[in-house]
From TrEMBL, chains A, B, C, D, E, F:
This is 4-carboxymuconolactone decarboxylase. SUPFAM superfamilies: AhpD-like. The lineage of its organism: Bacteria, Bacillati, Actinomycetota, Actinomycetes, Pseudonocardiales. One of its GO terms (molecular function) is 4-carboxymuconolactone decarboxylase activity. Keywords: Lyase. The keyword Transcription regulation does not apply. InterPro entries: 4CMD/NDH-1_regulator, AhpD-like, CMD-like. Residues 38-122 form the Carboxymuconolactone decarboxylase-like domain.
């Protein structure tokens, strides 16, 4: 932690962490920001992933559970939920666990936000061939 | 309230309440959730409508006024506003009252959320042949 | 609506409306703002009450239902909920209806915000000798 | 799931789940609601704990991670964070993991909400003799 | 401030202020509201612009900085951010300053809301031929 | 930007920036976090101030305008508003400009959040002997 690093070193360290979570989606966000705010893209990677996400005190799977809760509660973050539901699958959460986390969110955030987040999960699971999570019987 | 009910009994009780409010839109939400989170659909109906909405302490019309206020304030709940502006019409609120409730919301939530909600009302009223609510003179 | 009014005329018109809702609490807010932002106090009265609240398209009772929904959903507005739960009682909502509106809010906003708002109602009802609303049997 | 239950059965089932998480804090909330909204207290227990929290699809520890994320993101839920940071400790999250989840939240919710939540954790940990979590060296 | 004005006087005063900021976008919002809530359109202009924005105590450029911060923090206000990023350019903020204000917002609101707002800026800057703001090198 | 820095170098760089804004309040926050989350305190300084606030693309005065807008809109951030209203004064915003920024916020966030923020300003101005900002005449 105490060795000297350049800005580029830290970006690269963040990219290594991001690659393990969801490198493709992360790269898309950075590319989309390149012409308008490369600095924002830099900090998402170098700070968010390189300095926070990389810490060993909480596992990647646990971080995604916290993140799903936050993005559902914030509202209006459907694009980020898309990225992080993919990431959640990549770090070992099962579709059943993700769906249950969003059901759980209805107790604390109410149904509208829980339903909005669940429809993002439906889109992501559909793209990855993971539907149906449950049979459609009630 | 004290008789024993199965899970299915409670769902059916909720569906009866939902049918009086907006059965078609409710059914669409439940159907959309069937392959991903039938449990969430179950709770929207069995708990939200069967156990809360069904209570006699507040009229359906009054519940929709509270709901319009909440959904406008939360933000990012345009899909739910669509359902509940339809429901508001179904339980007896007039277009003028709905528009006024959203104007009123600008005092407490600011103009951006009030305008967003009013545009959802415009869409719903247009679909139901209720436009113009006002002439366009100022 | 088309007669010419001075700024002071409009403030006085707003105060008349405010007096019917909760003049005492309103006056306290305006007094508290006098040394820092009299302009904000002016607009709460002249615009909020004089130009929006005063309109006939929605009854004062209905406006309070919308307002309770908004303030509960926004969060962090306990001081305003205090004022508006008093106002709600003043314009004819019963304690049972207010409590039910806040129970209803749990479906859309989740339990934490519903519980926070209900504790404000408990404080207001206690100050006005309206407790218990329900016996404490379950 | 299909056996018939009375309202009281479901409340008792919820209390059993709540007792394993944080029965004392839960009982305090229910007691505080008794004179104003016993129905809200009923639903927190019977629905929140009895029907959602009780499900096996997500472990209690995982549910608390999601909940910490939501309560931090919502803001203004310090009282609920107090209950759920206690609950998080009770179901096996370590102080280091809780602190890390709140640090993680700063990436998605910003520093103000992360700092507010961390100060609630400091209060809870202090009451339980768990401070310092870290030495105060930087 | 003390001369008598009609409702129409005040609307016209607001339109003059709005014209200096972004008359075209403002007119579009008012036109869109004409058939559903002309009163809301009136208040956006007559109150928002005529009575608040018009005050000399803060420059138009400074007002847009505050507004960018608010709209980013609220979330779900992409349509309003579009209008106000245009307005910000019109009153003298540079693309670099706008992008930096949104980067700054990530510290207080978190990355998701900062990224959402930055993508709105990218759209607006693209429409006005202002891209790239930065070269795409990192 | 490209020279190699240790973690401690970056913290010290951030402290220099923070000292120019509001070193005393910043130090209090870091001290309060020391026993629970020194890492969070580190990132507030090293990232928030050292890497974002320190950039030349936006002046400290402009950053505070954006920050006042965000903290008012988020709600529940009274402690942070206290720090940043002090900071705003320190970097050259006048009491009149700060009060006006908060009045302006009522248009976009509604009166409750604007009033809450204005009461924080009243507290800060009182502590610094800056009241009354306006005479109490209306």
């Amino acid at each position: 932690m105490t060795k000297a690093e350049t800005r580029q070193d830290r970006f690269e360290r963040g990219m290594q962490v991001l690659d393990e979570v969801d490198g493709e989606a992360g790269q898309r966000v950075i590319d989309s920001l390149a012409a308008i705010s490369p600095e924002l893209g830099h900090h998402v990677v170098a700070w968010g992933f390189g300095e926070v996400y990389s810490r060993q005190e909480l596992s990647p799977r646990d971080r995604q559970l916290v993140t799903l809760g936050m993005l559902t509660a914030l509202g209006g973050c459907e694009a980020q939920l898309d990225v992080h539901i993919n990431a959640a699958l990549n770090v070992g959460l099962t579709p059943v666990e993700i769906v249950e986390a969003l059901l759980h969110s209805s107790v604390y955030c109410g149904f509208p936000k829980a339903v909005n987040a669940t429809f993002v999960a439906k889109k992501v699971f559909g793209e990855r061939g993971l539907l149906p999570v449950y049979g459609d019987e009630r």
